């Protein structure tokens, strides 16, 4: 019986240790609380994110995130390890993303920016 308890304890510890790898981190940089909806496909869950706080969301196979108080139809697809922020204007963005007139600015690659006419 002690062996079973030890095995279960070890299994629980391993699950806790690996859970952050499945997590998506959302940090609320706004001055007010926001409600984040996590869409896992078959289920949707709402989570409150207080101003200045972060929330880790389990997202083992990817999920869609949206703010109830943010701009309508503004969802983000997230995968394990992603870091997102709620900015002062209530937009949900990837942590390293810039908001450009309501769309996502493309990130340059090491071969130049996509669509750059100067590249040969």
UniProtKB/TrEMBL annotation:
Key words of the record: Signal
Signal peptide: 1-23
Domain of life of the organism encoding this protein: Bacteria
Protein name, as recorded: Lipoprotein
Organism of provenance: Methylobacterium oxalidis
